[in-house]
Design a protein that fits this description.
It comes from Labilithrix luteola. InterPro entries: Diverse_PLD-related, PLD-like_dom, PLipase_D/transphosphatidylase. By secondary structure, this protein is an alpha/beta fold. The protein is built from twelve helices and 20 strands. Helix 2 packs parallel to helix 3. The radius of gyration is 20 Å and the shape is globular. The N terminus and C terminus are likely disordered.
Length: 415
């Protein structure tokens, strides 16, 4: 699935003066939280739009182009198909092609053999589809989940293009109306699109200005960040140092929710960059709250060891969120909290696609949005507080404690 339809040629970098990012008023820019909530839970927030509805509305509004970069694409089968909310998204995408919208879909090669059906259908319907082997390129995967509409608005979030992500997993994303953010995302996507098409490993597409300092309508200063280091249209977009800067600037509080948290990379090499930053914050009196999924607390795992060690630090509170099973039967790789976001001092927010492990920043393609000031961090804080105080969250317990959150088998493909 490496058809050449929809290819865009890599451009030479414009002059550095044109690349300098400065804060600027963009009256049309806005950012909005978008959630997914597991069925049969009380986690659905009435004031936060649902991803399935938002995706369909965005896709139906496309007039010229739709550009997707997704880890994989997976539709329900059998008895689950009737209730799948991804079906409407797929149908909207196919409607877009029929009205002349140019659609591209980029996915990671690692899941193609497991989930070939949606991509094959897209190709049959005239959508340009490519897969990229990020393992060969950088040692990781295309883990990002985002799409861009008409080069003007974007969706970035933890939701995979997967029916389970819309109905059986807690997720968090953002809908961003900004040509600057959309353009910077397209540079990332176009870089990967060209690499997937066989362009030299050195290919980097830089056709737009950096999205750093976009002022949204409610006062948020928006910045696009991405990974991995060494594979970015501009290396100044690398997310890890920007996250560390937010943590090091914290004065009162840090609230983080991620699927998994480790102080090691998958190779076994130490990765303490974020862990050290949290400890520095706690040592200066900042109250740190870390919320992880049950996938991160398997007894004896590297993740559990890192969490247990961090939980013993003064001013740090670590808890796990457990989503109960679905009454309709087991759903593999679902019924979990998969969101990835952070709030610092109630005034700075990050929503992204990276779990907090070294590979996600050094080897794997991810993207995120940082919002400084404005309404978005406040909304994100309310969302975190609702999780933290819910009946689904418990402090870490000793592995042999019967009241500990139940461990679950982890998806080895790194969702």
């Amino acid at each position: 699935m490496n058809g050449c339809g929809g290819a865009r040629q890599a451009a030479s970098p414009p002059a550095s003066a044109a690349r300098e990012a400065t804060a600027r008023e963009v009256s049309a820019a806005s950012i909005q939280l978008v959630e997914s909530a597991p069925l049969e839970t009380t986690l659905d927030r009435p004031d936060v739009p649902n991803a399935a509805d938002t995706w369909v509305a965005m896709i139906d509004g496309a007039k010229r182009t739709l550009d997707f970069a997704e880890f994989y694409a997976s539709e329900a089968e059998g008895k689950d198909l009737a209730s799948s909310r991804l079906t409407a998204v797929i149908d909207a995408t196919l409607r877009a092609t029929k009205r002349g919208v140019k659609v591209r879909f980029l996915a990671d090669a690692s899941f193609l053999s497991k989930y070939p059906q949606v991509l094959a259908r897209f190709e049959r319907e005239g959508i340009a589809v490519r897969t990229i082997d990020y393992g060969k390129l950088a040692g990781g995967i295309l883990h990002a989940k985002y799409f861009v509409v008409d080069g003007e608005e974007s969706f970035v979030g933890s939701q995979n293009f997967d029916w389970r992500a819309l109905t059986h997993i807690q997720e968090m994303g953002v809908r961003v109306r900004s040509k600057e953010i959309a353009g910077a995302l397209l540079d990332v996507l176009d870089t990967d699109w060209e690499l997937a098409g066989g362009s030299p490993r050195e290919t980097r597409v830089r056709q737009h200005a950096l999205a750093d300092g976009v002022i949204a309508e409610h006062g948020e200063r928006l910045t696009l960040v991405a990974s991995p280091k060494g594979w970015l249209p501009s290396e100044t977009e690398w997310d890890l140092p920007k996250l560390v800067a937010l943590l090091d600037g914290a004065k009162q509080s840090i609230d983080v929710q991620v699927l998994t948290y480790k102080a090691k990379s998958r190779s076994g090499e130490a990765f303490t960059t974020l862990d050290d930053a949290l400890r520095r914050a706690a040592s200066r009196g900042v109250h740190v709250r870390l919320l992880v999924s049950e996938w991160s607390i398997k007894p004896g795992s590297d993740g559990r060891k890192a969490l247990d060690d961090l939980a013993h630090v003064k001013n740090v509170d670590v808890r796990a969120i457990v989503i109960p099973p679905f009454s309709g039967g087991e759903i593999p790789f679902a019924r979990v909290a998969h969101a990835k976001y952070m709030i610092v001092d109630g005034a700075h927010g990050w929503v992204g696609t990276s779990n907090w492990e070294g590979d996600y920043f050094d080897r794997t393609r991810n993207v995120g949005i940082i919002a400084d000031g404005g309404a978005l961090p406040t909304s994100l804080e309310r969302f975190f507080e609702g999780n933290w105080t819910s009946g689904y969250v418990s402090p870490l317990k000793a592995p042999d404690d019967a009241s500990a959150p139940r461990p679950a088998s982890t998806d080895s493909a790194r969702r």
